[in-house]
Amino acid sequence: MRRKEGQVTEAVGDEELLYRRCPPDYIEGTVVLEGAVKEHNLSVLRSRHADPDDARWDSRIFAEARGREPLVYPEFFVVEIAVSAIPKDKTPEFPNAAPHQFNVVHVPFDDNYAHCEVHILRDGKHVAKEGNLTGGEGKAAKKHLRMKLAEAARIRLRPNEGSTMAGAGTRASS
């Protein structure tokens, strides 16, 4: 994974692609299901600083914060989403509702400079917790974003395709 020194963040351009690992349960043929992109503050890697296969690796820092070893998931798909395909906003459906926007934000880890998140904003302010999107327009904005992300997602790598470490360090079956 390519890395730059420091935590300087860069704007993510519309011409970039985003990569995300995806369990096989969320793929039907060539269709990426909404469950693959349901995470709030969706974690992705930007193509400017990562290769598609890099999405299969955990960040060591993130894994250790959860009290486990970092893993690699060669049995997962990697999907790509063009930044240009992510809607910029959602027109309110309800009278007097606050507008919602969507933005890709570069949030690098010390060991994963390519890490980004897809954020939902209300009136230009990041909605940090998913619980703050439960009512009316917030719920509609969340659903709209997930639907558009799933529609835009394309399979980039199939399980074990492109992986140089197939089978090494994979998670234990549960």
The SSE order reads: EEEEHEEEEEHE
Q: What is the SS-derived class?
A: alpha+beta
What number of domains? 1
Give the count of helical stretches. 2
User: The biggest beta sheet, please?
Assistant: 8 strands, antiparallel
Number of strands: 10
Chain-averaged pLDDT: 86
**Which percent band covers the strand fraction?**
25-35%
Form type: globular
Low-confidence stretches: 166-174
The amount of helix comes to 10-25%
How far apart the termini lie comes to 28 Å
Give the C-alpha Rg.
Answer: 16 Å
Give an overview of the whole structure:
The strands form two sheets. Strands 1, 4, 5, 6, 7, 8, 9 and 10 form an eight-stranded antiparallel sheet that branches. A two-stranded antiparallel sheet has the order 2-3. It has one domain. The model is unreliable at about 165-174 (pLDDT under 50). It has helices at about 60-65, 135-150; strands at about 15-20, 25-30, 30, 40-45, 75-80, 90, 100-105, 115-120, 125, 155. The protein is of the alpha+beta class.
Concise overview:
This protein is α+β, with helices and mostly antiparallel strands and 174 residues long. Helices cover 13% and strands 25% of the residues. The protein has one domain.
Give short descriptive properties of this protein.
disordered C terminus, 13% helix, two-stranded antiparallel sheet, 174 residues
Secondary-structure map with pairings?
Blueprint: E1 17-22, E2 27-28, E3 31-32, E4 42-46, H1 60-65, E5 77-82, E6 89-90, E7 100-106, E8 115-122, E9 125-126, H2 136-152, E10 154-157
Antiparallel strand pairs: 1-4, 1-5, 2-3, 4-8, 5-10, 6-7, 7-8, 8-9
